[in-house]
Amino acid sequence: MSHRLHTLRMDNDEKGYRMAEMRPRFDSLGARHATGEAPRAVSAYQLFQTPPTLAARLVALLGTPARVLEPSAGLGRLLDVLPPCECVAVEVAPQLCEILYRWNRPNIRMTLLQRDFLTVAPLETGLFDAVAMNPPFHLRSDIAHIEHALTFLKPGGRLAALCLDTEHRERALRHRCATWEKIPAGAFAGEGTRVACIMLTIQT
């Protein structure tokens, strides 16, 4: 019996030493939540972020506009790759707006509106040289968002957007587009969906 107690004590001591060695790491991870360094899990309805490489390609289609509209800002993937400019970003989800408001993007002068984009009018924001957008796709809302966004463009302005790859979108939008590129379904796999989409541009 004494041998068993001795073995249990040794095992307990060993676990105690291991915990003591790991405690600084746990304390450090805990402190990251207080300092804001820890990653935050964020979800919102219809939030499928633009993959970074695709975001860079989409924004590159705009050139170097002075004033840009981002109508469905999400967590700012398109904002992150904009060239220096003035930008109005619109986002309906308050939890996403809170994060966007706190992030510092020194290359852009951003105005943030927490609104449903379809309720925003050009008279409120003025007109833009360019629009960069990854709109919600649910119930063909991407079509409505793209058509509404076109009313915010100056003459000669350019819109670059993503939409779902369906026959209905092609009938509604393709005849107006300067470019129409199919994006494979796997491009968004890392963002939680495998839908195929279109990257398009429209010139006014």
Keyword list:
2 domains, alpha/beta, Rossmann fold, seven-stranded mixed β-sheet, 38% helix, 7 helices, 204 residues, globular
Q: What does this 3D model show about the protein?
A:
This protein has 204 residues and is α/β, with parallel strands linked by helices. The protein has 2 domains: 39 residues; 152 residues, Vaccinia Virus protein VP39 (Rossmann fold, 3-Layer(aba) Sandwich). Strands 3-2-1-4-5-7-6 form a 7-stranded mixed beta sheet, with helices on both faces. Helix 6 links the parallel strand 4 and strand 5. The protein is globular. About 14% of the residues have low confidence.
Tally of distinct domains: 2
How do the strands line up in the largest sheet?
Answer: 3-2-1-4-5-7-6
Please name the fourth-level CATH homologous superfamily of the largest domain. Answer: Vaccinia Virus protein VP39
The H/E string reads HHEHEHEHEHEHEE
Give a short summary of the structure.
With 204 residues, the chain is an alpha/beta fold. It has 2 domains: 1-39; 52-203, Rossmann fold, CATH 3.40.50.150. It is 38% helix and 23% strand.
